[in-house]
Amino acid sequence: MTTLKIMQELNEIKVMIKKGNHFQKEIFNIQDLKGYTGFSESTIHKLSAKKLIPHNKPTNGALFFERLEIVEWIRKHKVYSDEEVLSKFSKQLKK
Fold this sequence. Notes:
Layout: H1 3-22, E1 27-28, H2 30-37, H3 41-49, E2 65-66, H4 67-76, H5 82-94
Antiparallel strand pairs: 1-2
């Protein structure tokens, strides 16, 4: 393995470690949330403006997001498969 190849792989590992640590933050800014969710900045602004996503606005401009609230919000908006819906419906009928 060449020195150049080793350096490239070390840089890739360094980036992966930084990304992993990045997602352990408690509070996200817009850039952090973009990386975490894959949403575009405009989508984040639209969701915030419509108060559809939990956020904090301590100043009259900067938006901040709590990681655990975002995870909970994502889980709360689950779309169930047809099989899951039928299963839940069947369980309710048996009661």
